[in-house]
Amino acid sequence: MKNKIYNEDNIKTMEKIPDNHCHGIITTPPYNLGRNPNHRRKDQEDYNLYADNVDNLTEEEYLEVRTTEFKEFQRIVKDDGVILYNMSYSKENPMLPLLLMNKIHNETDLTVADVITWKKNKANPFQTSPNKLTRISELIYVIVNKKHLHTFKANKEISKINEKTKQKFYKNYTNLIEARNNDGIKSKNKATFSIDLVEQLIHIYFPPKSIIYDPFMGIGTTAKG
Ligand SMILES: C[S@@+](CC[C@H](N)C(=O)[O-])C[C@H]1O[C@@H](n2cnc3c(N)ncnc32)[C@H](O)[C@@H]1O
Questions:
Q1: Residue 131 within a domain
Q2: pTM value?
Q3: Does 211 contact ligand 1 (Cβ within 6 A)?
């Protein structure tokens, strides 16, 4: 299935991917903002919680859909692989990512190993709010299999090895990544990655020739990076 474009629900795509096939995932899901004019209607014949244009689910439905996807991620990603899951939130529901991480921790073999802050190069000032801050950063959850919480694979460079003890020391990588918001491509999708971000993430976690899957590919930024 390499080098072929499948425009379909990621659950269908993942059915074609064998167990333990990928070294990891880099992705950002839809945020359920309720702004998509084509959003689902209960009376539609093809009503489907998992459809791409659905963005006004209840909180419970949203968490259920995302968790179902995570169960598939767990199957297709190698046990020592890593899932980099960027999840912002709508102003109305800042708890949503935390609720999702909690559900995944409780209902799958996966858990959060690290949290990275992606500092963007610009953000619109939030001047109508007397108390909320301008959101110039987003979080990227580093999700791994519980049995590899301390042994999952990354691509950190060794800086030196103690000759006596054979203890390895690695270059210093911090959990703050500064990267552009997007690549300036005019798209209906306002929540794209930047190649800059994707490249920095790949550099930290994935050696060359790794197989990386993005289940919410959008305009294809992960593939380009
Ligand atoms: C937040 S955007 C990600 C954008 C992407 N990172 C990029 O750089 O373009 C989420 C994308 O996932 C797509 N999507 C939503 N539900 C999906 C599903 N069930 N299967 C596959 N794609 C889906 C949306 O159409 C949207 O393009």
A1: yes
A2: 0.92
A3: no
